[in-house]
# Entry
Amino acid sequence: MVILSREVEDALRDDRPVVALETTLIAHGFPPGEGVAVGLESERRVREAGAVPATIGVLDGSVRVGLDEAELERFDAEARKLGARDLAAAAVQNAVGATTVGGTLAVCRRVGIRFMGTGGIGGVHRGWTQQPDVSADLAELVRTQALVVASGAKSILDVPATSEVLETLGIPTLGFRTSTLPRFYTAAGGPPVSVRVESPDEAAEVARAHWELGGGGLLLGNPPAQSLDDVDELIAEALEAAGREGVGGQQVTPFVLGWLHRESEGRTLAANRALVADNAGLAAAVAVGHAAG
Ligand code: PSU
Ligand code: MN
# Structure
């Protein structure tokens, strides 16, 4: 049911640093054909920092932990998007299944991976007063002793509401050299984090202490290196267009990202690529600090 690559299995057995990466970003987070390059670059950055990448997804009836390039190529726009609830069914039905942050965390819990890098976690959607759409990523963070590095929550969400729910759920929000939760495309202007940390080692130390106290997941917010300060209006326009055109459910994120990439003339795409890779690298640095500690 769960198959680890040789490299990941060896690293976990020897307590060497391992960083989990999701496949939803590869399949649905970038324009067709571009996701694989982002996945490979994330893996490269994890290795460069001294950890082993474990990209996770469902293929050929198994949950796979550690994928090669040919396997990554199979996660195209046709792949199912898998939260934790969807893993078993996708394996049984032999589907190609791309794991979200939540789906990836559920697998981390099963195999003992403690660190993950991604772009932005799911959270509370805008318009939640009408429709209570809250990502299952948050529930999996509660249950899983893992630290997720992200540039905050994904851009299309209600970030202050997401921050409130993270607090309610007891999920620490660490700011990497920042006191506010990054807003994905923008570093500044988000809600306060629960604690600021100045180094990967300090983040690793807080995570270890949190786990020793019986705590679960932590979010480490990494501000994007380049902030796009005019993107808020574009996001509002894109969400309005999605509503007008009746785009709903799982289609909303790809629709909005596609809109942003087009209307910003590729600036959001470049920013998105960069932050995903940066977060993978930081997750690896924290994992290395944890292994050394
Ligand atoms: N952030 C992005 N693009 C994405 C995602 C996050 O910029 O595609 C994905 C991640 O896999 C995240 C998921 O776990 O969206 C959350 O989806 P939902 O809101 O349906 O739970
Ligand atoms: Mn959702």
About this structure: The chain has a mean pLDDT of 96.
